[in-house]
Specification:
Blueprint: H1 15-31, H2 36-67
Helix pairs in contact: 1-2
Length: 78
């Protein structure tokens, strides 16, 4: 019997959406109640979400550097 082709999970709409999904996924993984196959797919999805979040953060950092003429400044609450 042939295995059905897997459909890649959707790309998150935003950094915040990815972070929220990652937090929910982490809670399910830590619960210890998922079957082994779901643990593996959950881990893979988590890695994908983490990569997405890192890419978004790096992109924003790059934009900030451009706005500050290449000098990344320390943020301070005023």
């Amino acid at each position: 019997m042939a295995k059905a082709p897997t459909v890649p999970p959707p790309v998150p709409a935003s950094y915040e959406a990815a972070l929220a999904e990652l937090e929910q996924l982490l809670a399910r993984l830590e619960s210890g109640e998922l079957p082994l196959e779901q643990l593996l797919s959950g881990y893979q999805r988590g890695a994908s979400l983490l990569s997405f979040c890192r890419e978004r953060l790096e992109a924003v950092e790059g934009q900030i550097k451009v706005l500050d003429q290449g000098a990344l400044k320390t943020w301070t609450a005023e």
